[in-house]
Amino acid sequence: MSAIVNTDQAEHWSGKAGEVWVREQAMFDGLMAPVLDLLLDRAGLQAGARVVDVGCGTGAGMIAAAQVVREGGHVTGLDVSGPMLELAKERLQAAGVTNATCLLADAQVHTFGDMAADHLVSRFGVMFFADPVAAFANMRGALKPGGRMTFVCWAGMDGNPWFRIPAEAAKAVVGAPPPQDPRAPGPMAFSEADYVRDILGQAGFEGIGLTTEEITLTPIGDLEQNATFASREGPAGRIVKEMGGGREEFAAVAAKLREDFKAFETPDGALRIPGRVHVVSATAGG
Questions:
Q1: How far is CA 58 from CA 73, 134, 229, in A?
Q2: Sequence-ordered strand ranges (E) for 1-140
């Protein structure tokens, strides 16, 4: 294991948060399948490519990328969560993937050495660094001259009811916690497009491109399952816990979400929830 400087994030994702992602792996992968498809489409990975997946989590992106680059290529996945990486390794083995490696590492300071990767990708894995400029400068060192980076990040709460509605429901039940720095490490840290461009420019990337895309999230399960899940995890769970709520408050939030999520219910009982993301690309200079 290499050095880790984002210790708060490492503790968070190796603790209860990581346990939730391991337990609910199918839920998260189903929810974000369209995002992974979008990422891989925009990245345009080629057979034989060497790829780095930052914030690889439980391995969905690694498996998909490894299948694209085939045996002549290789995928290296980095994450600070031990529990999530253990599941990723199990899934890679179960899928018969032999051209991928998992590393417990902090991409802000990991020594990439002579990796000279063709492409660095990330699905929601790069918004959690304490020093994003330093992190992206270090990640640029993983790429060969002219190598490309493509990542997807959330484009703010307003365009993402999967986050916004549970947060509003929780605040209605337990009150609002003190406001946070909108650029603090977390899912919505890269909401501002100009802020992202500035970070990448300071980190030495060239040819920076950013498009904002409308997507549809595809959570598995029915209305009841998703209302319960969203009441206990993500922004609602954080707010209820931060405000000292317990079982009654979680139940009250879930009840509100059962009503609010009806707007996204399909005739067959599934949920299809609109979302908004930034797709970001850049090149490592020669």
A1: 20, 25, 19
A2: 50-54, 74-79, 100-104, 117-123
Range of the domain at 249: 157-180+220-270
- Name residues of the chain where pLDDT drops below 70: 1
Is 107 domain-assigned? yes
Q: Which helix (H) or strand (E) holds 163?
A: helix 161-174
- Summarize pLDDT for 43-83 with one digit per residue, the tens: 999 999 999 999 999 999 999 999 999 999 999 999 999 99
Residue 255 contacts residue 201 (beta carbons within 8 Å): no
Residue type, 273: I
Q: For position 285, what pLDDT does the model report?
A: 84
Residues 93 and 235 in one domain: no
Q: Which residues contact 182 (CB under 8 A, 6 or more apart)?
A: 188, 189, 191, 192
Phi, psi of 103 (to 5 degrees): -125, 130
Q: Select from 148, 152, 129, 153 the least CA-distant residue to 51.
A: 148
Structure tokens at 147: 């190598």
